[in-house]
Amino acid sequence: MLAAIFDAQEFFKWFVENASYLFVFVFMVIESSFIPFPSEVIVPPAAYLACTNTGAGGDMNIYMVVVVATLGALVGAFINYYLALWIGRPVVYRFADSRLGHACLIDREKVNKAEAYFDKHGAISTFIGRLIPAIRQLISIPAGISRMNVGTFALFTTLGALVWNAILGALGYWLSLHVSPAMLFEKVEEYNKYLTYAGYALGVLCLIYILWNAFKKHPQKN
Question: What are φ and ψ of residue 153, in 5° steps?
Answer without folding.
Answer: -60, -45
